Amino acid sequence: MASPSATRNMLHSYGKRSIYVSFAAAVITTVAFNAFYVWPRHNKYEQFFATYDPYTRMKEICAANKGYMHTCPKELAKLYEKKGKAVAEH
């Protein structure tokens, strides 16, 4: 019997190798993306929100002159008065 040709099943062997390499690359890049991008950002957000007080921040925003937030209670009261609408009665 003759020995098999060197090119026999060459397409299949290259295909299998390519599938294994691409699967390994996909797993490695996914882990690297999570380890170096997602987890550090997640930890920074965790640290930020552990000490964040939204009420203090709202006071800081509204304490500025007109401020950059037009929905502060003082600004809304001024807008209602300009339009002639009654603001909450005390």
TrEMBL record:
Protein name: COX6C domain-containing protein
Keyword line: Membrane, Mitochondrion, Mitochondrion inner membrane, Transmembrane, Transmembrane helix
PANTHER family listed in its UniProt record: CYTOCHROME C OXIDASE SUBUNIT 6C
Bilayer-crossing regions: 20-39
Record's keyword annotation contains Ribonucleoprotein: no
Gene3D superfamilies according to UniProt: Mitochondrial cytochrome c oxidase subunit VIc/VIIs (4.10.93.10)
InterPro entries: Cytochrome_c_oxidase_VIc, Cytochrome_c_oxidase_VIc/VIIs, Cytochrome_c_oxidase_VIc_sf
Primary residence: mitochondrion
Membrane topology: Single-pass membrane protein
Domain of life from the UniProt record: Eukaryota
Keyword Cell wall biogenesis/degradation part of the UniProt annotation: no
Pathways per UniProt: Energy metabolism; oxidative phosphorylation
Compartment(s) of residence: Mitochondrion inner membrane
Family, as annotated: Belongs to the cytochrome c oxidase subunit 6c family.
Any single Pfam family the record assigns to this protein: COX6C
Coiled coil: none
GO CC annotation: mitochondrial inner membrane
